[in-house]
Amino acid sequence: MFRIVLICSLLTTVFSSYAQTDSLIFTNGNYIVGEIKSMDLGIIGIETDYSDSDFSIEWEGIQEIHTTSVFLITLSDGRRYHGPLRSVGDGQIEIIRASGDNVTVPAYEIVYLNSIDDTFLSRLSASFDLGFSFTKARNLRQFNFSLGLGYLAEKWALGMDYSFVASNQDEVDRIQRGDGSATFQYFLPKDWYALASLSLLSSTEMMLNLRTTTKVGLGKYLIHTNQTYWGVAAGLNFNNEDYYEEDARQSLEGYLGTELNMYDVGDLNLTARVAAYPSFTESGRWRMDIGINSKYDLPLDFYLRAGFTLNYDNQPVEGAGTTDYTFQFGVGWEL
Hints:
The protein is mainly β. It has two domains: about 1-115, SH3 type barrels (Roll); about 125-335, Porin (Beta Barrel). It is about 5% helix and about 65% strand. It has one helix and 23 strands. A twelve-stranded antiparallel beta barrel has the order 12-13-14-15-16-17-18-19-20-21-22-23. Strands 1, 2, 3, 4, 5, 6, 7 and 11 form an eight-stranded antiparallel beta sheet that branches. The protein has a three-stranded antiparallel beta sheet with strand order 8-9-10, with no helix packed on it. The relative contact order is 0.10.
């Protein structure tokens, strides 16, 4: 083992001029030297000077890690740190902090790494996918796309997404649906977080020109590992609705939500979200939103995506349906 560590250290010195200053030693005794980019969903990515594409390695297959790169680090109990890493034996990893009070944790407690510098792009994530279909009968044309953006800082995160579906057919009214959201999270101790979110929805099925919802609340991750995230949240929501042929409606609602993310299934990532909104100002009214997404990773940062979204309102306006749902399939690319 000493010989392996010595060789790894020498290689790190040789390649330092090429910014390849991180090293990984595997459980089978092999090693790799390069620049670690991230570890997420149980997979660590490392760039080397001798390969055109990054290597993806299972986190559980790593025996030792030594870096000079600086990372944003998230632990399974919700603690967040900032600094390089080095293994100190027996499956323990030391987080080297600028303040000098280093932290040592078991490797399995590290659930997220993101290599950062002072640039905006180093903390930004983005994805985009689209799909299109055409049928000769009545010139049926269907189009869908979705866009996602994210920014992660040490104590907070911002996420934005938007999806759109449209269908055109001869002798039939155009059908379309668009929904999007922007969510801010501020991370608190012990895996708690505060959230604020703005959501938009337009739907011909529900006769909505636009629904805007603004919610604030508090959440907690109940499970936070390299295989699964599961969180719950609760708070208040202000609902404002503009309909095609009806007066606008406004209401104050409660908010109860849960999100499950499972990703230890090869290249497949599964996410499910459920949110319920009981109204405080409209007697007996309640709404529910459900979203299920699956993403299968392809080479060169491309992916296949399939999604299902459902919106339910037990007191819709006259002429509108109580339920609207969509299935979406597309090919996308992520940054």
